[in-house]
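Shape matters. As here.
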Amino acid sequence: MSNATVHIPVLPKEILELGNPLPGQRWADGTAGGGGHCRLLAQRVGETGQVLAVDRDPAVIEALAGTLGDNVVARHASYDDLPEVLNELGGAKVHGILLDLGLSSDQLADRDRGFSFQTEGELDMRFDPTSGEPAWEWLARVDETTLADTIYQYGEERYSRRIARRIVDRRREETIRTADALRDIIYSSVPRSRPSPRGGRRHGRVDPATRTFQALRIVVNDELGILERALERLPECLELGGHLLIISFHSLEDRLVKYAFREDPRLEVVTRRPVQAAENEVNVNPRARSAKLRVARRITPVVEADPYNYGLVVRNK
């Protein structure tokens, strides 16, 4: 991962307005990525505050080392393990948690990671290359029905059966090990244009490979499972009145966040509808086009164990 890449954080104005980080507060960025949001929060909490930067990708933590201020602490971990990370650092609650569930530009640009179908690198797709199964191995062993269901469910791809059949046919001949090899199979399976009502043909805005690559990335990294666990666990990390801000980039994530915020008695929904980027931001940062921000606030008192064994201690009542 290159240190030279400048990460442009999505929805910065909205994050500051809705999360309202203040000097002296303690915040956590559970998806540190290129560090754009970390820097934003670190500036707001100031020298008397602290930002905990967490990421599953060890390359992210390595790249951020020494590039952020003294009020930022970086740790290699998954964001659903934030309670354990906070315990290791003393157990204090935080005033806010931010999650940006999208890929960073560094990850997409890394030709050896296989996140982008525009590269020829190995089809790895793991956020943490030190653990789990790379995408090409999963693709080599999964049965056709499961593969088709995965592409349909996680990629919302209407041609999932056709794509799965072509993949299975090809892997009988050779292992599908690179991003461009998978891309070419998808291109041969999905019509790249559709009839126009006015005659001729028109191309869709989304590349035919996008949805299948998204589906594989989600299953390889257990993205929805980790998000579900985080939605259950992270409210307990918040101080009373603390904010949980989550930026999602596709409908599956957004639905999980929406329903979890609505049903969790520990939380009060701050954003009744997802907040999206204004046109001027999208013009500068096209990645922001599909970003949806939802925010909730901790409303139940923080309950902790009594060190003197007299029962439970309720703080922030």
In short: The domain at 128-220 is CATH 1.10.150.170 (DNA polymerase; domain 1). The longest helix spans residues 251-263. Confidence is low (pLDDT under 50) at residues 1-5, 193-203. The chain has 13 helices and eleven strands.
